[in-house]
Design goal:
By secondary structure, the protein is an alpha/beta fold. It has 15 helices and 27 strands. The chain is 29% helix and 28% strand. The protein has a seven-stranded mixed beta sheet with strand order 3-7-1-14-11-12-13. A six-stranded mixed beta sheet has the order 9-17-16-15-10-27. Strands 18, 23, 24, 25 and 26 form a five-stranded mixed beta sheet that branches. The chain starts with 13 loop residues before the first strand and ends with a helix.
Length: 650
């Protein structure tokens, strides 16, 4: 990033768009209209450097090469004196493809090893007589963020420096992509970061592609460039199959679970995604024997990895739905079924430590009383049951789980994302980071540092943009900027204050330097209750009430946290297919209870909350229909078909 940018004349500006592939296969013929010197087209072979840039251990293409890997893949970038003429050229681009017989040429030789977890003697338990087998299968289709935005990237050159201005969640990734595409050294690429709002990681990877193309065009045309691109986020699709072997009292003795994740044509952070996924598959109840396996399979679909979480939310959702199904199989509500294990502990694993089940049950019970959950659940269950006369379509469900946040210990050990802290002679603090700090993040960090370190109110906390290219603070995702990173800054500042070195003195801190004995630590707990009704006319799933209860560690700003949690709930419901009630007599409301557990650590529960919200929403619809719903996102056609099948059986 840089402190300020040069004023650019629009008279010399060129404007660009990216044309995306509409069909798959190997490109056999590619034709563009005849263009004069005012225009420029860029295909993969026209880049000055490489068409690939690295995302940790994975490689990602900027433009399609000989073969189109997925529908919507960037195919060619077109630049000209105005957007209208550029868009017209894109309409006249013609190409033909021939089908390919192989799945994806980039992955012919690649096999991604699965992640597995196992404990107990499975074969011994399965030999027991009179075991009841409960099976579930959930299908999470690719979901798209509901917000429609256009990213605008501006690129210009000053001497031997390329400047790029755009919103992005990972400035260093953008810088490296520009460096690879232009063959300029990273030190000669300056990123000017703009404000963004990316609850579903919309600005994590696409800005790197856009910036690389804009910078290349800037060098080729010797003029400033403005490139626009629609931006969105897509979730991976996944299938989760689970089998529980229970005794006659409803206690699961053994479980087998398999999850297959489709990250599309170019899998990203595969190992980390599988660690997150298998963590979400862990049951909240004790099981004597357990086996889980997570696979990632490349496909011809659009690349997808981060979507507000890294496959943890979907795996957690499936685990919650399965426990609700177990309770129903033994004619109990979810809370009563879990209550049978309240004096026990969940199994310790390399992914999460054990937890006291009674702590989680106690929190959920408190929330259930507030929301009259048991009364409503019993009422809706009777009204929607096999012997109901009136067509009631209301449901309520509860979901609960311990939380995780950030990246796993295995990932953190291999990264060196940093922030530089400098304490001046006057006691002022300068923070040099590649994170965007000009909005709410910077304000929260400043308030937190002054409060925790007892700094004078007139002490200045300066966020240094000029030297931010010296450090890579990593991606702004998985709740790190309001969770793990502030904690690291506090500890670094404390070390600076205790230092006896002559000021000014500086310290580089690792933003990922929190290593747990397990991949994740139990970081707070969350419970959520969602009430839903199905419209008898439109078959829309209308959410009326949401109750949620959170137990956090250190809370930096109660109001910011409350707003963040409400946004996560609403965004998750929207991408899942929910409609919010506008009935004045029963409007959509979110009731939050937030408490502190006395911990000194700061963390977020966003990924956990997404999974719990999905689970409670789906389970409430299942009760409303009287038939299990096993797919996300929800559509009116799906509900119509399920409702009719249910009524035919009555």
């Amino acid at each position: 990033m840089a402190e300020k940018r040069t004023v650019i004349s629009k008279l010399t500006m060129h404007y660009g768009v990216i044309h995306h592939a509409q069909k798959l296969g190997k490109i056999s013929v590619f034709n563009t209209p005849e263009l004069d010197e005012r225009f420029l087209t860029l295909r993969s072979e026209d880049l000055l450097g490489s068409n690939l840039f690295d995302i940790c251990d994975s490689s990602f293409p900027i433009l399609a090469q000989e073969e189109i890997s997925y529908l919507g893949q960037p195919l060619i970038a077109v630049f000209g004196p105005d957007y209208e003429s550029v868009l017209k050229i894109c309409q006249n681009i013609k190409y033909t493809t021939i089908p390919t017989t192989k799945e994806n040429y980039l992955f012919d030789e690649v096999q991604i090893p699965p992640e597995t977890l196992e404990w107990g003697n499975m074969s011994e338990i399965l030999e027991k007589p009179d075991l009841k087998q409960i099976t579930s299968e959930y299908n999470f289709q690719a979901r798209k963020s509901f917000r429609k935005e256009i990213i605008t990237c501006t690129a210009w050159q000053e001497a031997n420096i390329i400047h790029v201005e755009l919103p992005c969640q990972w400035p260093e990734l953008v810088r490296q992509a520009v460096s690879k595409a232009t063959a300029f050294p990273p030190s000669s690429v300056v990123i000017h970061q703009l404000e963004y709002y990316a609850p579903l990681d919309e600005y994590l990877f696409i800005p790197s592609v856009v910036a690389a193309l804009a910078a290349t065009a800037c060098l080729k045309l010797s003029s400033p460039i403005q490139l626009r691109e629609p931006i969105s986020a897509y979730s991976p699709s996944s299938t989760i199959k689970r089998i529980s072997y229970c005794n006659q009292d409803g206690r699961p003795l053994a479980e087998k679970v398999e999850m297959t994740i489709n990250q599309g044509s170019f899998p990203i952070l595969e190992k980390e995604a599988m660690i997150h996924a298998i963590t979400g598959l862990l049951p909240n109840y004790p099981v004597n024997a357990f086996f889980a396996q997570v696979n990632i399979e490349p496909s011809k679909d659009r690349p997808a990895a981060f979507f507000g979480s890294l496959s943890y939310s979907d795996s957690l959702c499936a685990s919650q739905l399965h426990s609700i199904k177990l309770a129903k199989a033994f004619k109990k509500d979810t809370l009563s079924w879990h209550n049978a294990f309240k004096e026990e502990k969940r199994h310790f694993t390399d992914y999460l430590p054990s937890i006291e089940v009674k702590e989680l049950i106690g929190q959920a019970t408190s929330l259930a009383k507030k929301a009259s959950f048991l009364r409503n659940w019993s009422s809706y269950d009777i009204q929607n049951g096999d012997f109901s006369i009136l067509p009631f379509s209301r449901g309520v469900a509860i979901a609960m789980a311990p939380g995780i946040s950030g990246f796993s210990t295995s990932f953190c050990k291999n990264q060196n994302y940093q922030i530089k802290l400098t304490l001046t002679e006057k006691g002022n603090l300068t923070i040099t980071t590649s994170m965007y700090t000009k909005g709410i993040i910077g304000e929260v960090w400043a308030l937190m540092i002054k409060k925790e370190l007892n700094l004078l109110e007139d002490a200045s906390i300066i966020f240094n943009d000029r030297d931010a290219t010296q450090v890579d603070s990593g991606p702004d995702t998985l709740g790190l900027t309001l969770g793990q990173i502030p904690q690291q800054i506090i500890e670094g500042c404390q070390n600076l204050l205790l230092s006896k070195e002559k000021r000014p003195t500086s310290l580089m801190i690792n933003t990922q330097d929190i290593f747990f004995p397990c991949e994740f630590e139990n970081q707070g707990t969350a419970s959520i209750i969602i009430e839903t009704r199905i419209s008898a006319i439109s078959y829309l799933p209308i959410v009326t009430k949401v109750y949620a209860y959170f137990i956090f560690g250190k809370i930096l700003d109660q109001e910011v946290l409350r707003s963040q949690l409400k946004n996560v709930i609403s965004e998750t419901l929207s991408t899942s297919g929910a409609i919010f009630s506008t009935d004045p007599d029963n409007p959509y409301t979110v009731d939050l209870t937030i408490k502190n557990n006395g911990s000194d650590y700061v963390y977020t529960l966003d990924s956990t909350l997404r999974g719990l919200t999905q689970a409670a929403f789906l389970a409430s619809i299942s009760q409303a229909l009287g038939k299990e719903v096993v797919q996300l996102p929800i559509t009116t056609e799906m509900l119509f078909n399920l409702k009719n099948k249910t009524e035919e059986k009555k």
